[in-house]
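Incident log, support desk, overnight shift.

02:14 A customer reports that sequence design results differ from what the structure should imply. Their input is reproduced verbatim below. On-call engineer (initials T.W.) acknowledged and began investigating.
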């Protein structure tokens, strides 16, 4: 059996995540009390067959004792599990609560929505620190969330192997909240200032050649690879199945896209699991 624990901020997309996981074969359980987690091993659906993949939402709604949750997870012995924390900025969460007119689970505390979000972050902080994967859903639609979850699922099959997620982005749109490491490539020449390249994207061969023909760009990619190869064993030892890396330039259309694509190409050639997202390429 494999267990995926979905948690995170209210309004960050846990309900949609559960639906996505059900679509790819997970048996989904919403708001399970931590005290019942050890009994999940014996759970069988109507068919009578033991479950192989289980996704569980555990969050602030039930007043969950997260210390009890972590203790229960550690008591699962040899059963692999991954904690996925869904996050979003305060601005995004405020907008979602305003649009849906949902009541925040901590409403009884008598605070405004901003205060409730702040209080929820404080309560969830220990679980956020313990999470194996943190996903920023702020700029995602349901289809992008589905693909992100699909890229995580294989990691559960082999918790010993850390998967790399590379995201290109533009600083003018803010950095990815879920990134463990962020690199700024604005020191590289900007194709935007080359007339014939300005309206092209970093996936265009002419933009790629403009940057990758430079020795300093090639040196950066090589040294970046060496750094990640150096730290990956540590992530594996700490049972961190997911390493999220953001590569940023000004607009997220040229330099960051080229560098991210080249890094992914080299990682794949080296046999390292990797996924790629170009967050701002079409903005």
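02:41 Re-run completed on a clean worker. Output:
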């Amino acid at each position: 059996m494999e267990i995926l624990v979905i948690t995170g901020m209210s309004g960050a997309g846990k309900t949609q995540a559960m639906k996505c996981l059900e679509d790819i074969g997970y048996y989904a359980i919403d708001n399970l009390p931590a005290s019942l987690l050890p009994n999940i091993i014996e759970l069988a659906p109507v068919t009578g067959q033991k479950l192989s993949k289980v996704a569980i939402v555990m969050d602030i709604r039930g007043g969950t004792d997260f210390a009890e949750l972590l203790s229960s997870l550690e008591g699962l012995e040899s059963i692999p599990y991954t904690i996925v924390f869904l996050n979003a900025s305060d601005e995004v969460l405020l907008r979602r609560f305003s649009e849906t007119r949902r009541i925040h689970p901590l409403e009884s505390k008598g605070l405004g929505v901003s205060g409730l979000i702040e209080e929820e972050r404080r309560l969830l902080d220990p679980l956020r620190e313990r999470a194996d994967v943190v996903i920023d859903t702020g700029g995602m639609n349901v289809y992008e969330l589905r693909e992100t979850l699909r890229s995580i699922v294989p990691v559960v099959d082999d918790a010993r192997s850390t998967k790399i997620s590379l995201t290109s982005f533009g600083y003018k749109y803010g950095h990815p909240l879920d990134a463990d490491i962020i690199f700024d490539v604005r020191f590289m020449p900007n194709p935007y200032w080359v007339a014939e390249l300005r309206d092209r994207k970093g996936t265009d061969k002419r933009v790629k050649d403009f940057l990758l023909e430079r020795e300093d760009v090639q040196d950066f990619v090589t040294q970046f690879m060496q750094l990640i190869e150096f730290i990956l064993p540590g992530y594996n030892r700490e049972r961190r199945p997911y390493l999220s890396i953001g590569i940023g330039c000004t607009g997220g259309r040229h330099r960051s896209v080229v560098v991210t694509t080249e890094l992914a190409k080299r990682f794949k050639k080296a046999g390292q699991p990797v996924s790629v997202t170009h967050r701002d390429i079409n903005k």
